[in-house]
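Appendix B. Chain record.
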Amino acid sequence: MKKISFILSTILLLNLFSCKDYLETASPSTLSSETVFETPSMTKAAVMGLYGKMTDSYIYGQKLSVNWQGVSDIESNGSFSESNYNQSTSDYGAGNFFDNPYNMTTRWQSLYQFAELSTSAVDGIRKSPILESSAAQMQPLLGEALTLRALAYFELVRYWGDVPFKVEPSRSDLANVYMSKTDRDTIYKNIVQDLQEAIQYLPWLYANAEYSTSERITKGFAKGLLARVALFAGGWSLRDGNIFSNSTAEHHPAIPESNRFFVGRAQNWREYYQIAAQQSAEIIGASENPHTLDPNYQNIWESVCGQRQNSSNENLFEIAFGLGNNGDIGSLMGYAVDGNSKYGTRGFGGSYVTSTAYYFYSFDKEDKRRDVTLTWLRYTNQNQEAVSTNPLDVKFAKWRIYWMSDSYLTMHKTATSRVSTGVNWILMRYSDVYLMYAEAMNELQGPDAVNPAAGISAQQALEKVRERAFGSGSPKIKAYDPDFFKAIVNERAWEFGGESIRKQDLVRWGLLYDKIEEMKMSLCLMFDNKQPVTIFDKTYQPSDFPHTVYYRYKDAEYIDPNSLNYYRELPANPGGDYLSVTWFPQSAQKPETGTNKDYVNWPVRTLLAGTGLYPSYDYSAFLGTLTNGAEIQSNLVQYTMGNGTCYYRHPFAIFYEDIYESKNNLQNSFGY
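Structure tokens predicted for this chain:
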């Protein structure tokens, strides 16, 4: 895949707009903005530097792509652990909503640098003497800079809530640097305006040679990002009524208020949903739109791992990384490879973002996305696959070492430390456009509603995504939850697992607590294996989960994935070449002899997950329904659960140094 060259342009931009952090931004140096923005080539170099900034490990290089996915109903950041779940100075604790003002792993410094650099570029282009005379070259660059600034503030609001916000560069006298928080509704309004303007300037992908890669922002992504921003602007989030006492936000009808912290949404939320519906409809219906769904879901991930552009242009925008230079996509999550294998002494993939048996069994067994998204298999140092059996550690499989480029494999084989994979982070796929359209249209007019710009209904958009999952003509395409909103909630889970989308979706729907708790209760019932359990739109009987899973190899190295009996018990020894592993319903039973404590440990680890979200938790009544509930409860009570302050505490804390340096303009909220 063609990679944008960032080195020269990043040095240029950082020299032009150097900044230590968001509170202390120096005046332009080395090159004046007039010098940079007086030619299209220098302007392009400055904008390319913005793309380079996104590869920072505290932006998409690691944090926003991998580390901050946190706990949802389908993802975990390796936090099903009695010791990790509430570490207040790690991504593990923050992922369970136990953040802390002293936690450097959740600091916003790099994102504010990105916002400042983008704002400076926007300002420089607007003031450029050639903006009008070279409009064909300069306006698209302005569109890119506006979109990147919108993206920076969008991530800041989603992860920290109300934050300092400005649309002009920092002044040399720092008069506009030390700022208090801005209400998120104001920030969203400005982000929407930036994107609406940017769309006017940007070309579609392949409209010209300059914009012939998904590593550059084009009209399709800007419109898709506007749709996404609008859904969040009209969605639910935790707010501080102490700071914004005059807020007119609508309060959530079911999530309680505590200490004047409440979950709310903008009163004009329907206007934002209309924006989302219209923007996504215009993408779908545009004759110039080059984006389509890749007919093969697996090919999306084979292509990006192999550093190739998607042949169907499914990916509206990818953060471009350089092999051996930056990016941890794949090395921190994905198909697990042991060290000291044929691939080298270093391992690959594994434990930082994983999933559970709950998510695995939420899929229909015929859904082609299941075995692309998740795997129970791992590659061992015996140079062959084995079957993993931990129901709290199911690997995401969209990133696999045997899909990586030959160049990466050569580097990895001789590496003694982690190698930057150079695998691009996909920020938006075309399937998201269909599902955002379906969601917005359903909320405004119902599932049968058709926006003339798209020419299809909300149902048809959902079914377009399901058609790829099940194959053309499959009756499963229309076999989804009769409550269309629930169908969308489910479909987005199956489509985007491990892509750092789910937790934030649940936040804006006001469902984060409910869905996490559903996951936890269902997992405990699966371990108990005595009662029916509901997982998404499916109900399983205890007998649907086998106690023994059999498998066989298709060759000397790889297991035949079709040989595993995930959904039914088989007679012992189904074939002479089959091997077997004990599955979780058996492992989770209390043994008559021996030291296996999974029957206690697994439920305890499950119930501790995500418990920084609400003030307190009490599982005693639920545990009273389980076979070993009393023993689980006696173990569980030794651990801290709950934040003691507010409901729905999903935002991160502001780092203490940023508060100290704000000259009393900033303070933490939500009990931090």
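Further analysis of this model is presented in Appendix C.
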